[in-house]
Structure formats: C-alpha cells, structure tokens
Design a protein that fits this description.
Ribosomal Protein S5, domain 2; four-stranded mixed sheet; 4 helices
C-alpha cells in the first residue's frame, strides 16, 4: 500500500502550459488546501470547490490561448488533473474503488458516481439552461469531465436531476465530483478491490 499518495503533472503544448499538484490525503506544501491560479475565473472557482469538498490538496496553474476561448485550457487542466489522480492512486491497492455523492445547490441537484476501475468512461446527463456563465462556455464542463475520466482511468457518471440556475448546477457537479472521488479513493483495506486481482 502506498504511503504518499501524491502526484505532480506538467503539460506544455503550443496551446497551453498547465501544472497540477495533487495530494489525495490532503497534505500539500502550499499555504492553503487549494491554490488555483489559472486564466479562467469560473473554472478556478469550481476547482477550489472541488478541492474543498474532496479534502484533496490541490495546486493548479494554467496559461493558454484564451484569446481564442477557454477550450484548450479547460481540457488540458482536466487531462492533467486526471493524470495526477491516476498517478497518486498508484496500483489502487486498498481503495474503496466506488464513490457516490448527491449534492444540492439551492434549487439544483446533481449526482456523481465513480468507479476507479482503470477503465475510462463518461456518462454525462446535464441539460444546462444557459450557454455561458460570465465568459465561460458551459459546454466545456462536459469536455473537462471527459478529460478527467479518460486520463484518470475512471468510469464517471454525472447526472443532473434538476435545476434552473446554470451556475448552481455546475457548482453542484464539482462538489459532488469531489465528494465521490474522496469516497472512492479512501483506503479501506490492504487488497486490490477487484475479483481479477488487478485494476
């Protein structure tokens, strides 16, 4: 069983430069539990909420071609976060593997269920009333979730039950994602949680 479940991922392309540091057990050498410095205010706010509700130590920096839009930056942050989750989990020995959270945010309710199976898959059922929150294109939430799922090797199911305010709906998603991942990543035994003996 790993004793230090931490990871650092850096990704530099012609479009973005992203760095993610993650500690699944909350110990990260930053002044706060979450230190988010990215060129996308709305996603930065959502990542702060994700970190708080997961209990993970998280530091993210991100720069990119935001003069075009936020697509490349959002996707690459998702890829780096997912890679950090996978690396920090190691061989996934001892984890609970499954996690679920249903989070209300005022009138909105979102359910997120995860399986840290090593097999990436995204189910995303979210009808967002508005196309933008501020200058953020809300369709990018699905791109972020897909990037996390694919690079983390997890089955991720995001189901919005209802809601009218788009900000509230997305906030509920990120809080639920944090809670569900924390439950799934919790150490509950010394065994690989699979009948196959490997994840």
């Amino acid at each position: 069983m790993t004793t230090s479940r931490k990871a650092e991922i850096e990704r530099t392309t012609r479009e973005t430069t992203v760095s993610v540091r993650l500690a699944l057990d909350g110990a990260l050498d930053t002044p706060a539990a979450a230190a988010i410095d990215i060129e996308c205010g709305f996603l930065g706010h959502m990542l702060e909420l994700f970190a708080f509700h997961s209990g993970f130590g998280l530091a993210v920096t991100g720069r990119g071609d935001t003069r075009v839009d936020y697509h490349h930056l959002v996707e690459d942050i998702g890829l780096c976060l997912g890679s950090a989750i996978s690396r920090a989990l190691g061989d996934r020995r001892g984890i609970a593997r499954y996690g679920h959270a249903a989070i209300p945010m005022d009138e909105a309710l979102c359910m997120v269920t995860v399986d840290l199976s090593g097999r990436p898959y995204l189910v995303y059922n979210a009808a967002l009333p508005a196309q933008k929150v501020g200058d953020f294109d809300t369709e990018l939430v699905e791109e972020f979730m897909r990037a996390v799922a694919s690079s983390a090797g997890i089955a991720l199911h995001v189901n919005v039950m209802y809601g009218r305010n788009t900000h509230h709906i997305i906030e509920a998603m990120f809080k639920a994602l944090g809670r569900a991942l924390a439950a799934a990543a919790a150490i509950t035994s010394a065994d690989i949680p699979s009948s196959k003996g490997v994840l």
